[in-house]
Amino acid sequence: MVSFKKIKSFALISVFDKSNLVFLCNLFEKYKIGIISSGSTSKEIKSLGYNCFEISKLTKFNEVLDGRVKTLHPNIYISILHNRENHDHKKTFKNINFPKIDFVIVSLYPFSKYKKNKSYNAIEMIDIGGPTLLRAAAKNFESVTAISSPSDYTLLAHSIERNSGTTNLSFRKKMAAKTFKVISKYDQNIHNWFIENKEKKYIKLKYGENPHQKAKLKIKNDFNLSNYKIQGKEISYNNILDIDSGLDFLNEFTEPTTVIIKHNNACGIASSSTIKKSFVRALNSDKKSAFGGVVLLNKKLESGLAKILIKNFFEVIVSPGYTNEAIKILSLRKNLILINSNKIPKKQKKIIKSVRMGNLIQENDNLSLSKKHLKIVSKNKKLTHREYEDVLFGFKVVKHIKSNAIVLVKNKQTIGIGAGQMNRYDATKLSISKYKENFSLKNLVCASDAFFPFVDSIKLLQKNNCRCIVVPNGSINDNKVINFVDKNQLKLIFSSLRVFKH
Amino acid sequence: MVSFKKIKSFALISVFDKSNLVFLCNLFEKYKIGIISSGSTSKEIKSLGYNCFEISKLTKFNEVLDGRVKTLHPNIYISILHNRENHDHKKTFKNINFPKIDFVIVSLYPFSKYKKNKSYNAIEMIDIGGPTLLRAAAKNFESVTAISSPSDYTLLAHSIERNSGTTNLSFRKKMAAKTFKVISKYDQNIHNWFIENKEKKYIKLKYGENPHQKAKLKIKNDFNLSNYKIQGKEISYNNILDIDSGLDFLNEFTEPTTVIIKHNNACGIASSSTIKKSFVRALNSDKKSAFGGVVLLNKKLESGLAKILIKNFFEVIVSPGYTNEAIKILSLRKNLILINSNKIPKKQKKIIKSVRMGNLIQENDNLSLSKKHLKIVSKNKKLTHREYEDVLFGFKVVKHIKSNAIVLVKNKQTIGIGAGQMNRYDATKLSISKYKENFSLKNLVCASDAFFPFVDSIKLLQKNNCRCIVVPNGSINDNKVINFVDKNQLKLIFSSLRVFKH
Fold first, then answer.
1. Mean pLDDT computed over every residue of chain B
2. Which pTM was predicted?
């Protein structure tokens, strides 16, 4: 074998995955690039009929600790890391009399394959030397090529062939970027393994929105919903969606309040002096829709209310607390899911929703509605206390109903919810038709989640006993709306917040 | 200074962040743990009045390449990595005559702080030695403690104090887990820096669903929607949601098809012999709702259609192609956004939605509806070709309308969409009321996204000229529904797929 001094450029190869080594060795032989290797890689290279220099002979340091320490030698790192343009670096490198490593080819110990083995043997698969070699090469990408996967050998060959024995900067940069990605994932896997031994990060769900869709819940901050289930059947994907929506509504209120959710929309919501009263009124908002729904309360559930609840069919009840007697009563319905909401995170800061173009990330609409967002714009500015309370209640509710949304309110009870419509007039018509089904009242309050583009909806509201309307401003017809309102002695409040929800 | 041989246990300290070094040195001094260090860390320790051993003196190897190679020496790694329970390992360690390192305290070069400096100087902040020391210590957590942040010094002190000079296994394991997390993030940052120099991964959006919510789009696979915008104002968060929903509808059809989206629901959709005809019919489905909508076509947009489109107000048009003449015509509406859908990813495999308990992840509903999912269960089994086509069309549409959803169809045109309702009867009523507003036809086809719990909806459909119904089975009242259908000579098709969408 020739002395390494006659060879200008070297590749250090240390691969767990030995596929396509022939391709690689052929390439280096063709371009007179020397090969440095050790252990099982060097055995394999030699058995394939190629020459290679043993690392241990070059460093005069033998592999120890069953392979735990092989390549962690300063001369190797001086060779990889020295700046080829820096006079002092070049001098240091020359002094150590060592081959110049311009290529580092490493495939890491396959930690992921072994991690399922819960014994500590998986630890032997935590590669220390490999990531260090790759990271050093990637750091010095201005001169050195880091190859972290056999799948890149073809690209490497293309670059070497086009550049007569060396690679081009953009290729080295691309491979360096990939290297840090590979190692980041590798270490993330190791981290997960450490954590998994402690606690699961995913909860498997029976299925998704429909039985033919698989689904799971990736838990944040080790929060496991099942820990807060008191009784009942398995919590479904749609249950979780509904519980989440329901808690959004409840966040708006401190008074005893009940919300009943169906298909991610509220079908009834009411605030009252007691939680029992609020439940009865939320149920009466739209009893037909409430069937099979998810009921969320913001106060402790006691036996009196439990006795009423048990007479109806619901899928889930969520409350910040239950008396023992209440649990006993509700346990007669074995499938009914009871959740303690006390430990469920109050709010999301960010909302993530995947679309085919990527992930949409937005701040959650956590702004609390207050007086400063509202302005009476009608001539008639005399809101009764009750009207003002209903304006606040209605707007807090409509904020969480799917757009376009119109909500009719009386005494902090929804009496007509027009949800999910493609135009505002339809949403208005729908809320009125729902109202007429169940109620016949005077002086209704209406809340809209965005401006009225025309006067048609207001006309309809006026005809149906609505005297007070809260709505975001912003239409080019805002003035027409104000004129109509004033002509009919209605009360109109503009909100500076628009509250779409899709 | 005493010889290292008299000290049983050592801490190797190499910290960029030098906060709380006094606390740390005090702790080690108290428990007679020796300190090994180098460079600026050792200077600082000495200036604080503590003793420490210089790494270079112990390894007899000087720091070189302006600090690029300091600690990458096999003796250090033999000391950290040797298995304290393994006879051969212990022998190897004894032979090198080196201090036993039981604690590795490293704070990494702050790459993130420097990465914004787009020059290559940031590269000097890619730490090679630090991560290697930490990873080695974390790998050997059965004996060695890895501390990757000054914020953990207090915990370290607690553990050492409770265990009279050593740490307990569970603490070491916790710190090892953290170490891999820290390094994974560190390398992810470096990777992002490499990529950022090439392309942005986030697109900032003007705002989210509402003006008071900040938002951005995290791009998948370097796909940038703006690259496919031909003209028009800035694409909004809600535009992206609507485009994504619209493409879900179009994926179902190969015939020329137009869908018009408002608030994430279709307000009109039609398949016809030409794309122009399909647009006109989709618009006529519900002209009122279509105002200001997002129009999606599955065929090239030509001048004839452009002349019709320009007469209406839309926010966005999406098409797989445009003739130059069509673009010229549409350019008269400067704000109108034109998108080429050709390069937009066809489908999402997984859907992610964040809730306060974590992230819900489900398979997308990408199953293609076919004959095998449908079964005629009425006595009357003679569906005309047209009816059968409308059954398929209607069910494909209702799959993507928000639940509860009922869709009325005639000749592959939606003629009444009842979307987003909290009970099925309301959805049915809504679809019929929408139908009556715009049409008066015979032999309608109805599609429902889940079973009818009662017969009431079917009665209403029958009264309003609907003769053929496609609906998922699964109600305890399925037989009652079949009986009613048979008594009234209606046609009923059961789908084995339920198609909720929330």
1. 93
2. 0.75
B112 versus A377: the higher-pLDDT residue is A377
Interior/surface letters A12-43, b for 16+ CB within 10 angstroms, e for the rest: bbbbeebeebeebbebbeebebbbbbbeebbe
Query: Do B69 and B190 share a domain, yes or no?
Result: yes
User: B92-127 pLDDT, tens per residue?
Assistant: 999 999 999 999 999 998 887 766 655 557 788 889
Q: How many contacts does A have with B, using Cβ atoms within 8 A? A: 365
Q: Is A196 helix (H, G, I), strand (E, B) or coil?
A: helix
Q: Pick from B502, B449, B461: which is nearest to B485 by CA?
A: B461
Residue B64 in any domain: the answer is yes
Q: Which residues of chain A neighbour B68 with C-beta distances below 8 Å?
A: 77, 81-82
What residues contact residue A293 under an 8 Å CB cut-off, 6+ apart?
A242, A260, A261, A262, A267, A314, A315, B422
Contact A217 B361 (CB under 8 A): yes
Interface with A, mutate which of B127, B251, B360, B452 (most A CBs under 10 A): B360
Shortest alpha-carbon distance between residue A49 and chain B (Å) = 31
With CB atoms and an 8 Å threshold, state whether B497 touches A81.
no
d(CA B361, CA B364): 9
Compute the nearest-CA separation of A382 from chain B (Å): 29
Contact check, Cβ <8 Å, B500/A359: no
Q: What is the DSSP letter of B125?
A: G
Residues A42 and A183 in one domain: yes
ipTM of the complex: 0.74
Percent of chain B residues past pLDDT 70, beyond the cut = 96
Contact flag A210-B497 (C-beta cutoff 8 Å): yes
Q: How many domains does chain A have?
A: 3
Q: Report the gap between the CA of A183 and the closest CA in chain B (Å).
A: 7
Q: Which of A181, A263, A346 to mutate to test the interface with B (most CBs of B within 10 A)?
A: A263
| Same structural domain, A431 and A339 | no
Q: Any bridge partners for residue A301, and if so which?
A: A322
What is the residue range of A469's domain?
A: 367-495
> B199: pLDDT confidence band, cut at 50, 70 and 90?
low
Cα–chain-centroid distance for residue B213? 19
Instruction: Residue A294: count other Cβ atoms within 10 Å of its Cβ.
Output: 27
Residues of B whose CB is below 8 A from A430: 430
A362 to B194: CB separation less than 8 angstroms, yes or no: no
Q: What pLDDT, in 10s, does the model give residues A151-201?
A: 999 999 999 999 999 999 999 999 999 999 999 999 998 998 888 755 557
Active-site residue set of B: 139, 263
Least CB–CB distance from B352: residue in A65, A262, A359: A359
Report whether pLDDT(A221) > 70: no
In sequence order, which residues have a C-beta less than 8 Å from that of residue B426 and are 6 or more positions away? A288, A289, A434, B404, B418
CATH of residue B277's domain is 3.40.140.20
